[in-house]
Amino acid sequence: MTPDSSVSTSPGAAPEIVIYTSAICGYCVAAKTFLKNQGLEWREVRIDLDIAERERMMARARRTSVPQIFVGETHVGGYDDMMALHRKGGFLPLLQGAGA
User: Fold this and answer.
1) β-strand pairing of 68-71 with 17-21
2) For a designed S-S bond to 35, which of 1, 13, 22, 40 qualifies (C-beta 3.0 to 4.6 A apart)?
3) Distance (Å, rounded) from C-alpha 11 to C-alpha 52?
4) Is the pLDDT of residue 6 over 60?
């Protein structure tokens, strides 16, 4: 939800969460609701408003569907992928800088 696109590089700082979304996307809403309920902030990139961002998402994720979620440089995947990772106890450690 942060409008700023800068990434914090201070030691111990949590990696930035980036979520690529579009206007009509139930899974995007679900992903943002989950992040909000966890007390997390994220940067949302609307690919339906900017074709260059859509191309960037496809290059980064190698997928065309939304949402696509990144924690730092780690590609988490879509909503189902994020929830599966969370159920296995792997999502929150990513926010502490642990690899996937």
Assistant:
1) antiparallel
2) 40
3) 31
4) no
Q: Lowest mean pLDDT of 13-17, 19-23, 38-42, 95-99, name the range.
A: 95-99
Distance CA 48, CA 53 (A): 9
> Which structure tokens are listed for 9?
């590089």
Q: Is the pLDDT of residue 55 over 60?
A: yes
pTM for this predicted structure: 0.85
Q: Which residue has the tokens 């730092």?
A: 72
| DSSP 8-state assignment for residue 8 | -
HSE at residue 90, side-chain half, CA atoms within 13 A, is: 12
Q: Which CATH architecture has domain 17-95?
A: 3-Layer(aba) Sandwich (3.40)
Beta strand spans in 1-100 (E)? 17-21, 43-46, 68-71, 74-77
Domain positions in the chain: 17-95
Distance CA(82)–CA(65), nearest Å, equals: 14
